[in-house]
Amino acid sequence: MTALLIAETNRLLSRRMTRWVPVGVLALTVIGFTIAYFVIRAEGGSIDFVTDMAFEADDDFGPAIEQPESQTFILGPIGFLFPIIAFAMGASFFGADQKNGVIELLLTWEPKRMKFLLARALGGFAVVTAMAVGLSAAFIAAQYILAGSLGTTDGMTSEMWGWLAAAVLRSGAASGVFFLIGLGITVVVNNSIAAIVGFVVYVFVIENLLSAFVELVGVWLPMVNTTAFSFGSNVAPSSVFTDFSQGPPPVHHGPMTAGLVVAAYAVVFLAVGFVVFKRRDVA
Questions:
Q1: What does each of the 283 residues of the chain score in pLDDT, given as a tens digit?
Q2: Nearest 10 degrees: CA dihedral of 10, 15, 21, 22?
Q3: Mapping DSSP to helix (H, G, I), strand (E, B) and coil, where does residue 111 land?
Q4: What backbone torsions phi and psi does residue 249 show, to the nearest 5 degrees?
Q5: How far apart are alpha carbons 125 and 175 in whole angstroms?
Q6: Is there a contact between 88 and 175 (Cβ–Cβ < 8 Å)?
Q7: Closest by alpha carbon to 18, among 110, 101, 88?
Q8: Do the beta carbons of residue 116 and residue 4 sit within 8 Å?
């Protein structure tokens, strides 16, 4: 199993997508913060790292019930974007090999399909999680440097740095889980393009509609719970019909529960993928 795990991990690391995604994200980070530096400097602005970037107050959904005070939205769009990228990487990792006949070739070396798919899942999870952790840490470092250059970083404590480190680790774990979801769904539909397109439509259209109009299921949706888990915030039932004049809606569950919800999606999709892959004729 160890040799197979190493082989599948190296196979993922050798893919162009695995190499160029982090390079592209880092390049965009550098460009974005360089532009921000000159714009803020030209306008005579100032940044407080603690209150403006790291720990903005969030009063919409009440106090955190599982990680009090530690919620942070410093990762911003990164916390939402990385799971989508991870899904695409998981889908492509299986779909590209399936399309090019590599899966059939690999099964002549390791005929035990469950062992083969498990190694691919574990290796991919480790690689994508590490990649997301590194990129998230770089994103926070860029914000810290920007604040130090154009404002202040005063007020940061070792405890707060611990909270940010936890957010980075949660973001990495969420990305790794979505790699597994992408892998599982692609094994089922046997087409990476269909899996990726369907997922993008779901994320930007279907889930938004469900969140807006079906309050009962909104608290269980994958992207809603992923965002809560990554940022350390709460999930609360709300829709376009919610009456906010009576105050914020009651908290349904906290970030750690949200993480378990997302992990459950991965387990289900992988389990279905294992069953389908075992029964499919890949010759």
A1: 788 888 888 888 888 888 899 999 999 999 999 999 999 888 888 888 888 888 764 544 444 455 556 678 888 888 889 999 999 999 999 888 788 788 777 777 777 888 888 999 999 999 999 999 999 999 999 999 999 898 898 888 888 899 899 999 999 999 999 999 999 999 999 888 999 999 999 999 999 898 888 888 889 999 999 998 998 888 887 766 666 566 667 788 888 999 999 999 999 999 999 998 888 766 5
A2: 30
A3: coil
A4: -65, 155
A5: 8
A6: no
A7: 88
A8: yes
Q: Which residue has the tokens 């997302």?
A: 262
- pTM (predicted TM-score): 0.90
- Structure tokens belonging to residue 205: 């259209």
In angstroms, the CA 168 to CA 75 distance is 8
Return the exposure string of 234-255: e unless at least 16 CB atoms fall within 10 Å of the residue's CB, then b: bbbebeeeeeeeeeebebbbbb
Rounded Cα distance between 106 and 116, Å, is 8
